[in-house]
Amino acid sequence: MDVAASEGRRRTWSEKGASMRFTGRSGSRRAWSGGSLIPLAVCFLTMLGSLGCVTTVNEASRAHPNDPEYRDRLDEVGTIYESRDVQKIMGLYVGDTYSLSFDQTISFDSGATDHRGTLENLLQGVESLKVAWAPDVTVDRTSEHAWTTRHFVATAKLVTGEVREVSGWHSAIWSERDGKWLIEYEHFQGDTKLVSSPPASPVAAPAPLVAVPAVETFPDIFFDYDKWDIRADQLDSIGIVLAWLQKYPESTMTVEGHCDERGSTRYNINLGQRRADTTKAWLVAHGVAPERLRTISFGKSRPFEDGRSQEAWQSNRRSHFVVTKGPQRP
Predict the structure, then answer these.
(1) Which of 45, 214, 47 shows the shortest CA–CA distance to 122?
(2) Is 183 helix (H, G, I), strand (E, B) or coil?
(3) Chain-centre distance of CA 147, in angstroms?
(4) Distances (CA, A) of 104 to 84, 188, 229, 315
(5) How far, in Å, CA of 154 to CA of 191, rounded?
(6) Would you give the end-to-end CA distance of the chain in angstroms?
(7) Are 160 and 198 in contact (CB under 8 A)?
(8) Could you read off the pLDDT tens digit of each residue along the chain, which spans 330 residues?
(9) Residue 30 forms beta bridges with which residues?
């Protein structure tokens, strides 16, 4: 296995606010300013993707395909987003641990350090929004969590007169808080197309320059096949994460466990959880407070690299780090 190539791969996280940064698998970066975020409002509102995840307790999840309870809940999510009422939208989510990730064709960015601020920035450019869900929904449940995946098409008219359509997938992890089921983790995946352009402006004003926030880069931790122990050649990589957590003691992080495509979905969910838990245990053993680290497993549902080669499989056996609370930037 060519592990060295995999060790060099990086994901990024960025503070959400005036701008958002996406990093492609090729290593190139594209940044959108606050003004450019407007067309992405639809993506944020509705991109759904990725298969089910795992609970941190040792309880097997059970499949409930087309569970009417969660079909209705997702219908409600769409209706509330159509209202563009940020206060109502925030009521759909767990406030203390919510995190978000985008996954497009060649780009990836994750983390939601300012959920309300991100919503306000994105929705301020949307004049109207319509969300249409597919009839089928995939649901897996335990007593404490539920995982949903459902296809959607969303159409948004922007204040500029532009109309955009997003077709894709939304997946979410739900947990019960005070008798109400709320979204704890959310993943969007989809493609955007321009339906109609706004009328041409006689005089186009130059776009203002917007400062791009600082970006922290973390390496993933890679594992051997069917293993979850941290290899000696991964200690430098996890050491980078440890040093950052020590530098910013108020920060918090989610550790995601991932697997390659071989094996059943249920087996890989459990394997990914072991990898995330082992990674967290190493950081805790080196002085990080356990309450600062949350673990989650995506099993084999979110491969970083497509393909059936040894290199692709090695790239997908990993722990990935998502900052959920980071340092304030000037």
Answers:
(1) 45
(2) strand
(3) 14
(4) 23, 8, 30, 18
(5) 11
(6) 43
(7) yes
(8) 433 334 333 333 333 333 333 333 333 333 333 444 444 444 444 443 333 344 444 678 889 999 999 999 999 999 999 999 989 998 998 876 666 655 433 333 334 456 777 777 778 788 899 999 999 999 998 888 898 999 999 898 888 888 888 888 888 889 888 889 999 888 777 777 887 776 665 655 554 544 434 446 789 999 999 999 999 999 999 999 999 999 999 899 999 999 999 999 889 999 999 999 999 999 999 999 999 999 999 999 888 888 889 998 999 999 999 888 877 544
(9) 22
Phi and psi at residue 234, to the nearest 5°: -105, 0
Residue positions counted in the chain: 330
The C-alpha atoms of residue 125 and residue 131 are separated, in whole angstroms, by 17
pTM: 0.48
Q: Output the six-digit token pair for 285.
A: 């053993």
Tokens of 72: 């209705």
| Of residues 168, 125, 162, the one with CA closest to residue 37 | 125
In which residue are the tokens 């497993």 written?
297
Amino acid letter, residue 300: K
Distance of alpha carbon 91 from alpha carbon 97, whole angstroms: 14
Token code pair at residue 51: 């298969």
Instruction: Please state, in angstroms and as integers, the Cα–Cα distance from residue 66 to each residue in 131, 150, 154, following that order.
Output: 18, 10, 21
- Output the DSSP codes for 149-173: EEEEEEEEEETTS-EEEEEEEEEEE
**Residues 18, 36: contact at Cβ < 8 Å?**
no
Q: Structure tokens of 319?
A: 């722990």
